[in-house]
Request: fold
Amino acid sequence: MKGLTHFISAIATASFFPQVVRMSATPGAQIDGAQSSFILALAGLYGIMPDTLDFKFGRFFETAEIDVYPDPRNPDAQAIADTLGSAMDRAIIENREIRIQFHTVQLSADHWRQYQIAFDAERQEVAVVIGPVVTTSQVAFAGTEPDNRVGIYRLKHARLKPGGARSTTVDIMSGPMYGFRPGQDHVLVDFLPWHRTWSHSYVVGAALALPLWPLALWMNWPSAWLYPLIAFLGFSTHVTEDLTGHMGGSLFWPFFRERTRGLCWFHAANPDSNFVTDYIAVTLILFNLDRFVTKLIPLSAPVFFLLFLIGPLLLYFLPRLVSTKPAPKARRQDSVQGVIEAHRRQAAQEELLDESESIVG
Amino acid sequence: MTEYLTILTFCLAGTLSGAIISLIPSLHIYNTAGIALILWTHIEGVIPYTAVAPFFLSLVVAYAFLNTIPMTLIGAPDESASVTILPGIKYLTLGRGFEATLAGGIGSLIGILFLSVAMPLIYVAMPFIHKILAPHMHAILMAVIVYMLMSEWPKGEGLGRTTWERFRQAWRNVFAGLVTFGLAGILGLIVTSRTLVSPDAGFQNIMPVFIGLFAIPGAIEKLLSRETIPPQHISSSVELTRGDIGWSTLQGVIAGGMAAYLPAVTAGIGGILAGHAVARRGDRLFIVSGGIAKVLYYVGAFLLLYCVTPLTPMGIGRGGLSIILKPVLQPLPRELPMMIGAILLSGCISFLLLIPSTRLTIRLLSRVHYHVLYWATLPLLVVLVVFITGWAGLALMLIASCIGMIPVFFHSRRSNCMAVLLVPIALNMAGYGDTILRLLGLD
Reply:
């Protein structure tokens, strides 16, 4: 999920503690236990911390054996597919992990060349499709795709497991890293092998939260024990929420280092899951702030949630329920597969033509 | 009847004045509103009391609409800066500045309609929300600060041979953002704790700081830019889908709502948060939602002053115009329908003015280089600062300009400059302001 979703969910989790809500009120408001504490912001800070550790620090310490820099003037899809496929084969032949970093193709300050990397377990192939020029907002310029834009590599030694690898689009800012490791009877594909490993562990969360206890005691903050607890819960909210995605996390690193697979309910950037989670979190925060401090809402909990949670969410999804159009994401996936299929059909026709020409003479 | 005619006349006068002022690049409407109020207090009777609020409200409505013109058409940066600029300026570089300006105007119109329709609901709900959130406002602002700082990610790939080289290259903008935030926060603590400008200009004491942080660096950036404005296409339609309008409304209402209610949270910061919450991409979405957010930020914030209920007997004072007018205004809830009428009238006229004004500006820019406009604006801003706040204000403006230049050169978020208000307000609300000042040796 996105940073804001983790941040706000962590605050929502902390708001379930009456003492935390009262602590965060200003003493001027005549509330028992009011301390003007910033503990709710602390929950948010720890809520966003796992991704901060990865994207602001961890990634710079990880190096790839192979770097792919597509030519900005003439990107060669086949060369990229060959590099990718041979890296997977090498992982099996040399029985070790091979990491490959795909770099973005920046054409100007605001223009980038998009390309897609696809894995086909059915055909045991990897494919690269060169896409259109896009802006930094990922808005594509139609008709800017090159003519010869599909590269396909048939795997020779590595075996892809169905659903074992995730296709991706490379366009703006930074490109993805893949790690290939030999498995029992197939190649294991790690997308962003440096992401959601040590940083997404409950154990690391506890280790990062614990120092807050002596700090709070030293600063003479009342209820010092709550600070590490809230920080740990904020961190854990992030780690748990990420399990709804595809990548999962190394939940008990360093005891179990393997990155577990997620539940594959949503992609991390899915707008609906992010917005709905944000909205639920805000509603819960408001409800908790009121029930623990001000007690002003003249509605019972079921009526409140019906009016302010269920109702607005129904309104949010209503246009989608009424509309018959497919979701944009699905259309994009279709288009990548469509390009690869069209390329296969064209190649098959050319092969037939060559054959018939050789027979006819 | 005469009273209504007077109000109508001043609504039109406010709209026209706001429209003209909006076309001057880098000049903020609150600076002009401040001057107008000083003049009003000195020349009593120029505007009858009943027309004061409609006049200033119309001024701000027109600004929310027509400020899109200089923002889109004159902010033309060079290649190196354009990654960090607004999508409206991307449209400009593609010759679609007219379309972008109109899309922003459509957004503002949606904002006005939203306010008109939702105001009864806002009137009922906001006092409850305000009472629930008020004791925790410092914590909410600190959460905004933490998120803003944590969510500025390294730009680019961090290319380099060693870990340190990669780290240093990627962290340039993040570090610049942290420095900007820290310096702006300290400046804010100094400005809010000590009166550096004349007490007569007390309510404008933050003005030189804002001009220094935002207007001067923006103007210098444009003057350094060698980019020229390409020929602009005057389109007969604006490309917007129902989906664009729906998502923009959601994003704009969230952004504007936060900016209107939370102290020191601007439409820009609200836009960052709302953009992350709605999690949808697209330049059109950004432009239209920006138009909506601006209206809610400038106009909606002022209307909250009219939420006079048993829970909020003094209304909910938010936004710059409320601060400027509060000393001379006694808002009554029964005036709210008149205020909605004023914003509807002013909004519609402003939208109609937007079309010819954009055409006119495009024609002007085809003859006069935009550098000329900025060379004319810079002295105007300096004179304004010296006139209202004296030489001390000018010194403040220069210091703030130095801080404001950091994000320009390092491509970090300019919203970090808002620490000038966010930090002192959050700390003072929590009651830690004096302690921090003592620690900094400023008590």
About this structure: Residues 116 and 335 of chain B are 14 Å apart (CA to CA). The radius of gyration of chain B is 21 Å. The first helix of chain B runs from residue 2 to 22.
